Amino acid sequence: MQVTIKNVPWRFQHGLIRRCCYFVLSKFLTSQKMGHIEINIVGVPNQFNEEGALGYCSISDEHFGSNKKVPVWFTIELDTKQDLCTFFIVLCHELVHLKQYATRQLREYYYPTYRRTWKDKDITNRYYSQCPHEQEAYRREAVLYREFMGHCGIDLEFIGPIVPSNRRVKWIHMPTLL
Q1: pTM, whole model, 2 decimals?
Q2: How does DSSP assign 60-103, residue by residue?
Q3: How many domains are there within the chain?
Q4: In CATH, what number is assigned to the domain containing residue 58?
């Protein structure tokens, strides 16, 4: 697996970002499939203020026209104006989407018209909160974050539920040492 990081400040610890990608995807993908994955992580300052999202995961443009049935090139865009804890929770969320694309649970079609399918069922017109791929990503993000930080030996101090204005209620742990 290759992870390229662009426009992400060093305070987000690039080595930890790469370790997080490997840790999360190794829970879902075979080592053979992981060997083909290429991820381009791009920092976008103020993405939430401009686009209303803290992160995006998409199949990279290089995939289209490559005649590959299973996508292996991905772009993850993350808002760099968030705290370290939120940054890694959002990264875990977007990596769940990457897994969904790589396993073909989630597919997007652009011709003749745009369509999104989940396990071969059309979900194009569903509300964001009713989309099964988003429900899975929200369900897994905090669990994956806690497991990853524990795997890295980073002590977590429980601070209770946090309700940011742009996220659902999640039980979030803040790292005390990085």
Answers
A1: 0.84
A2: -GGGTTTT-SS--EEEEEE-SSS-HHHHHHHHHHHHHHHHHHHT
A3: 1
A4: 3.40.390
